[in-house]
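Tokens in:
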């Protein structure tokens, strides 16, 4: 894990990143960690002003998520706020607090389309233009330098870099992002990933992060690996699975995808995770225990991260008096479901 080799690339991980990798492996041996996007930044009817440390799930279950997800889209533009209007200064504060309390930090990145200068969901073809030799390669390097500057500024009280999981360019087998299916070839995507990792390390000195590769729901092993950039450039294997339709459809996808993912991870000797998941508004009262946990318990995943609580019409974790909150308390009490207090001593 510490050294990774390809024909032209070697990366030496910072010991903190190696420690995080080992910790993730040990967590998977005990169960799976519960994660939530933007958990401590805001929730239903509240926003953090930087002086508090709270979360909706903490208010419901008495403990914070073990995995804290944050979004850095628009850091590439030099903006002061991310694409969800969260100040980057607040994200820095919450990353440091979460790390100090023993949490695991993940960063997602939805960069704007570098050709159209519109959102990540604007699918004008762009990947070929930002690859080495492309007309916008220098622009992309400038964007990536801002990503690296932000990540390098995430340090603990001793000034040491905080290790974290970086998950760029996810759901590439779907067609909704400019880096997705139909907007670049698998080979172009692989080049983008490899060049990104190489630039982060060789140009910008980022050696304390782990990279997670996470397609959307897939049909078979071949689809999962069709955009895979190579073992040397990926640390953690993931998949994003949401319940968009029926419970039966969702649980079938969960079982099939995690089974295939587990097989691939075993072959490659890498940890794996449910990197995004959820049911919007958690409309099923016993969703956490009967639907979710029933189908991922003891599956070998290291964590399951649920999307953000933006507003009453768009939330993926419970808040006080939400329909699934009573079931979530039961979910929290399951011995294999790990929250912040459960993982802080796992090393």
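Residues out:
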């Amino acid at each position: 894990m510490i050294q990774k080799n390809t024909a032209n690339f070697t990366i030496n991980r910072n010991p903190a990143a190696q420690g995080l990798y080992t910790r993730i492996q040990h967590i998977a041996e005990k169960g799976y960690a519960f994660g939530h996007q933007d958990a401590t930044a805001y929730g239903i009817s509240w926003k953090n002003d930087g002086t508090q440390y709270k979360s909706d799930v903490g208010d419901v279950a008495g403990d914070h998520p073990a995995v804290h997800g944050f979004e850095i889209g628009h850091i590439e533009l030099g903006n002061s706020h991310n694409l969800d209007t969260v100040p980057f200064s607040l994200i820095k504060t919450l990353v440091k607090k979460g790390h100090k309390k023993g949490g695991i930090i993940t960063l997602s990145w939805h960069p704007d389309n570098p050709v159209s200068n519109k959102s990540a969901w604007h699918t004008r073809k762009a990947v070929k233009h930002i690859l080495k030799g492309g007309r916008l390669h220098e622009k992309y390097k400038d964007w990536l330098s801002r990503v690296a500057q932000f990540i390098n500024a995430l340090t603990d009280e001793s000034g040491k870099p905080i290790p974290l999981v970086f998950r760029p360019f996810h759901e590439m087998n779907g067609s909704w992002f400019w880096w997705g299916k139909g907007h670049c070839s698998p080979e172009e995507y692989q080049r983008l990933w490899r060049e990104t990792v190489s630039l982060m390390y060789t140009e910008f000195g980022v050696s304390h992060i782990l990279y997670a590769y996470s397609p959307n729901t897939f049909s078979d092993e071949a689809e999962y690996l069709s955009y895979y950039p190579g073992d040397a450039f990926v640390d953690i294997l993931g998949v994003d699975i949401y319940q968009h339709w029926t419970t039966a459809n969702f649980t079938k996808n969960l079982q099939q995808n995690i089974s295939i993912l587990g097989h691939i991870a075993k072959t490659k000797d890498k940890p794996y995770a449910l990197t995004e998941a959820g049911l919007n508004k958690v409309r099923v009262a016993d969703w956490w225990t009967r639907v979710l946990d029933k189908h991922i318990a003891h599956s070998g995943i290291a964590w399951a991260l649920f999307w953000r609580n933006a507003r009453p019409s768009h939330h993926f974790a419970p808040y006080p008096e939400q329909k699934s909150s009573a079931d979530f308390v039961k979910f929290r009490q399951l011995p294999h479901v790990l929250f912040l207090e459960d993982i802080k001593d796992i090393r």
